[in-house]
């Protein structure tokens, strides 16, 4: 098998940067009602049929083959092509097309495939289909966008009547989770016969899911229920995804009843959505990190006191309120609790550690003291690029410009396009001060390891700060390759503590995703972001009275 070349964190970032709202189309809504995660439902769930349900997409899928588009399209793709396992928001894996999964050693994953599953055309799912699909999504030589998420896969072979064995090139603590997310299974025969156009309207992949694609165009996607689906049938008979790029237009469509759900792309406008009669808005926590970067290999940011002076000059709370309203959290470290829970042992342990870091205080006196203690006590001039259509980056630059001026530091804002932003990242040309936004593909701390370390301080890797320490170098192999959660938790704490103390990065915000759902509909259980990524959300959609 050809070895993938793209890095998991870089690919996660690219999808975030390319689609301004990251995974906006990945999620429908999360709970029946309420403006906070886990809110108590007030709508009464019924078993009434749902003839049609329409969701507003910000943009049409580029392709319905995951190897060509694994960002916003995944919510649609996982309704007709399915994974072997489903990943929960807590990092738990649940059998799906595979009825059993075992890990006999750190570099082997055995899948026992269900024998009663049929594709939507009536043919049985076979190990050959699974093998072809996993090779397809990990084939970097063919340009699979998903290959960077599956870089440790070395071989995929049939080892029994319904058994498929995946061999890894090295221990990878998130390989199984990545296969669960990106290893969507499709019929090999159809895919091979339509290789050139696979994923287009002329060659939609044949899958085993609860729906099949009826229509696909630049206007959206329409799916109809697969009445021979092997598992629980969803309530909506027809699912339609209409492309509505403008938020105001989506609001009008919701008011008129043309759509039943939508992503609130500008989350500060949540109050406007709430004014629509019967509408509920729901906040969805996301493992998304936004942060400031310093190039610690160049002056003046090779001086930790300069970095601290800048960090103490950022009014995170004020910027967050201006950019996101009340729908974001201030990061206390370069991780969210959800990213750490799997190795920390519990959400409480993860949160306790982050609380212990304490974040960075906005304090002009502390900023002045740090600059006075630096090698640039009289200040300096720095040009700071920001992406011209991502408002929190511009707000942060203007905030720094205002707050650093009294210290003799001149900040010169420079707007750039997202395309240039991504290009600079891949070329390892992030300037003295830059901005990054990454979303963890899996609820795991491995992403943290991709932004530090000597090995990652070169193009096209992801250590934009060019920062490392001896303790970080020792912790990285453990974080990236150990099979011991306790050892990985220790390594994650070492790296996060080092980042907090030396500030190669300044953690900023973790904004929520916000969604609106029309009166008459709800979910019958609590949902997570990953439920929508893996397709399980659709069986929770119910009519209400």
Automatic annotation (TrEMBL):
Gene Ontology CC, one term: periplasmic space
Pfam families linked to this entry: SBP_bac_5 (PF00496)
GO term, biological process aspect, one: peptide transport
Gene Ontology molecular function terms on file: peptide transmembrane transporter activity
Signal peptide stretch: 1-38
Positions of the Solute-binding protein family domain: 92-446
Keywords: Signal
InterPro entries per record: Peptide/Ni-bd, SBP_5, SBP_5_dom
Protein name as annotated: ABC transporter substrate-binding protein
Organism: Rhodococcus qingshengii
Organism lineage string: Bacteria, Bacillati, Actinomycetota, Actinomycetes, Mycobacteriales
